[in-house]
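Appendix B.2, paired examples.
Example (i):
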Amino acid sequence: MAKKDFYEVLGLQKGASDEEIKKAFRKLAIKYHPDKNQGDKEAEEKFKEINEAYQVLSDPEKKARYDQYGDADFGAGGYGGYGAEGFDFSDFGGFGDIFDSFFGGGGGGRRKKGGPAKGADLEYTVTLTFEEAVAGVEKEISITRNEKCETCGGTGAKEGTQPKTCDKCGGTGQVRVQRNTPLGSFMSMNTCDKCGGKGTIISDPCQECKGSGKIRKNRKITVKIPAGVDTGNVIPMRGQGEHGTGGGPSGDLYVNIRVTPHKVFKRKGYDIFIDSNISFSKATLGVELKVPTIDGDVKYSVPPGTQPGTVFRLKGKGVPRVNGHGRGDQYVNVVVDIPKTLSAKQKEALLMYMEASGEISEEDGSKKSFMGKIKDTFK
């Protein structure tokens, strides 16, 4: 009877790369592992199949012979002895950690857990005014973090003593455990229950830190915030996070920026936008405006006949570019105000303007009506 297609067993096409083969096996091995499917005979058989397929396809020589002769001609028993018994998942480098999460072991982890470890990173949010964000500012912030205990030097042991190497795990923080399954024996590495994975035992703990090697402290830190920052920017401060353990480096502090809105200026990127209100007559005749900018007022000549919604640019009057050169621009949107109420004199002037512009003519009788309005105005 012909054997199954090993590529098909792993869900692959013939000629798949070594990485594709390894990736497919990892996925299926997790899915059908006996510890995850206890009592499921179908899963047990499937696990045997994918294990057998991987043993052939992961070996360059066996894979070459299999690709050349095919599953039917390769020969019965040509792959013998590739059950789960004695299989070492550590060959996958990190695959054991995946099995740890599912089955409590996997044979891949052999690192010493009590070794140097980087401290945790911290976050802090600082709120700035619009002006502070644009110009740049120094802020003093207060954070609380874990620091190395100065009394014991971070060892956790009482002054004059030192932690002892755990006699159960030999200082590795892990112990080898053999687990028997219907498919055979599996060797896995578990966290040492005597030292909790630290690799050392403290017989006489430090009274200051209670054996933790760390002290909780409040610290004031000065943050230099460059000009041009905006909401969503993050300033990293290397080494200002929590202190490391076992001689490891400190973590980092990430300062998140939040900027409060301004009443006049609206920011988009490094550009600033404002509205400038002028009267109908000024828009018609032209006017010299005083325009507010982040540097103070500047003069700008609005030409005669400027239409509502006209936008003009003040080059280089925007926000400085963070850690760069130059600045954005400021854009001024002209808003023409239309009065809702008019005095008699204003109405007379507008009616005379309408006559002069030809909006009132004798042919349609509107001129007569116009004269009546003039009389009514003077009444």
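Example (ii):
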Amino acid sequence: MTIEIAIKKKLKEYRLDFSFTSTSRQTALLGASGSGKSMILKCIAGIETPDEGYIRVNGRTLFDKSRKIDLPPQKRRVGYLFQNYALFPNFTVRQNIACVLKKKERQRVDLLLRRFELTEIAEQYGEELSGGQQQRVALARLLASDPEILLLDEPFSALDTFLKEKVELEMKTFLRDYDGEAILVTHNRNEAYRLCEDLVILNRGQGIEHGKLKQIFDQPRYLATSKLTGCKNFSRVERLDDHHLLALDWDLPLTVAGPVTSDIRYVGIRAHFFEEAADPTAENCFTAKILDQTETPFEWRLLCQANDGEVPIWWKLTKDTKRRDFTGVLHVPAAAIQLLQQEPCANVSGREQS
């Protein structure tokens, strides 16, 4: 499977300018609300039309502005799973699946009902189904249309926590067996991490990072990427030499593993990477005053002040590691410190940058 996208579209607040080539089976588009994730899916599906560019799936052109190619949605072989699943409420489960098939293909309905364990509710109507049942019906209907690519638009956003975990597990099993490519749009980093191989980070209509998901989580390049992947602690920096810097907002000198190049503007440290110092004189140790602490079912979340820094630091630790006699000194490994660039500026609608 190969998908190639290079599209531009003027939106209300900025200009979508997105390029992407992938051979991965599962890719997540991760970005904040309003970053253009759903618009990209709609352009792939043919619901929206880009102003410029092209979209190709397995060498087949779905859209090419310069060649005046714009296939209608029903000819694109793209399956789109909407946030609310978009079932017909006045259709039964069987009818919702059958509606995308030609009459001579209707025998496939029973196969799909069995595959998604829907046989017992085949005659129930869409409005009578649970969230998990609705999703299975929507996926069965998508497969009935024989798509080359699946587009999943925030598929768990309407579900409560308990049901979300169950439905997500079903989705994981489904994607493992699906032969085509799937693109998942989400603002939930945990969903992306559990379901996908590759990751694209979106920031105001631009794809600023693309690669293997776990590598991007471990070594983000940009400040926006680090924030979207869950890091809580950031400071502006002053470079001292190739492996030393001053975290200005924490008043904290740090030794880092990677080279501090001229384009590094920030450091990021995940809250779980701090630890009580075994040797207070070792590098990357600093005095910390606990300003506040919050208990959750499985961890402690402590708000700390480092040295005389103006910006507090979040420190998280599981309950079985919390010590009552905190020494007042924290340590962070050099390898745990993220060296971050400022993300590229997005084109603002009406004021496009040269």
